[in-house]
Amino acid sequence: MRQLKVYTSLWAMQPHDQSGVKLPYDQVCEMVAAAGFDGMVLDLGAFDVSVAHTVRPHMEAQGLTPLIADFPKTIDSLEDTLHMAADFGAPFVDVIGQVMPLAIDDMVPVIETWMGMSDRIGVPVQFETHRNCITNDLFVTLQLLDRIPDMRLCADLSHYVVDREFWFPLSDDDMGLISRILHRSDSFQGRVASRQQIQLQLDFPQHQKWVDLFKGWWREGLADWRARNPSGDCIFVCELGPPEYAMTGPDGREMSNRWEESQLIMRWVRQIWDDLGGDS
Fold first, then answer.
1. Exposure of 226 by Cβ count < 10 A (0-12 exposed, 13-18 middle, 19+ buried)?
2. Distance CA 136, CA 108 (A)
3. Could you name the domain of life of the organism this protein comes from (predicted)?
4. How far apart are CA 192 and CA 199, in angstroms?
5. What DSSP designation does 39 have?
6. Quick count: other Cβ atoms within 10 Å of Cβ 26?
């Protein structure tokens, strides 16, 4: 049986809206579970390991599954995170690798070493499409995929829309490049970007063309995942970050309610999943 599991992230919940108030971890977990999310990402780039251990019992009390996102700055440092993920019961580790050689020939051994660690410890890894890491650039990532057939991705396409400054509408060639990313992706992240903004307000009229573009990509990605996986959980993370990801006005206040927007994305994605055949 295939199931869609929708997560948010602790980073996105600190704070979760324009109030700027950072809620205590127990209240955050209650809110996330009550809204219908299945899990929450613990981002070791935003918080240290001690925070993950502090939040863990509150997540367990609410039945939320943890997912670990790591930003390893050395090749060896990923190993501790993989052991931690195994202990936490995380489905995989989302790797935003900070080891960034300039040449493809030097990148390949880094990815292969991390994949070997993953196999040895028994915790899957997915490499997030993310700026300021080894998958920073769309073209480089596509070359890595060609060189490493077993490399799997977590697709956060917002980074590549900004990185490549795609004109709208995208050309058929550019859409084809994104399709290649989606075909190698085993999970997805929900944020809408434009060519010059990483995180757009979802209800502004001028942003609707980008909203529609991303919804189309999410549909394509989920359909492709279903075609490749007769069973298992497909994880989609609604990750709307606080400022400076979130745009603010002159008073420093966010221009939209990210908590409401994250739930809107969850509803969109669940509807897309159901349209594709649901949990079957």
1. middle
2. 14
3. Bacteria
4. 6
5. E
6. 14
Query: Residue 280 pLDDT > 90, yes or no?
Result: no
235-269 burial string, b = 16+ CB within 10 Å, else e?
bbbbbbbbeebbeeeeeeebebbbbebbbbbbebb
Q: Note the pTM of the prediction, 2 decimals.
A: 0.97
Query: What CATH number has the domain spanning 2-275?
Result: 3.20.20.150
Mean pLDDT of 47-66: 98
- Give the relative orientation of helices 208-228 and 258-275 as an angle to the nearest 10 degrees: 50
Q: Where are the domains of the chain?
A: 2-275
For residue range 74-88, what is the model confidence (pLDDT) as tens digits?
Answer: 999 999 999 999 999
| 8 — pLDDT class (breaks 50, 70, 90) | very high
Q: How far apart are CA 226 and CA 209, in angstroms?
A: 26
Question: Percent helix, strand, coil in the chain (nearest 5)?
Answer: 45, 15, 40
DSSP reduced 3-state for 227: helix
> Hey, is 171 helix, strand or coil?
coil
Q: Quote the distance between the C-alpha of residue 71 and its chain's center.
A: 13
Which of 51, 46, 44 has its CA nearest to residue 29? Answer: 51
Q: At 135, is the secondary structure helix, strand, or coil?
A: coil
pLDDT over 90 (residue 204): yes
Residues 6+ apart with CB under 8 A from 207: 192, 194, 200, 201
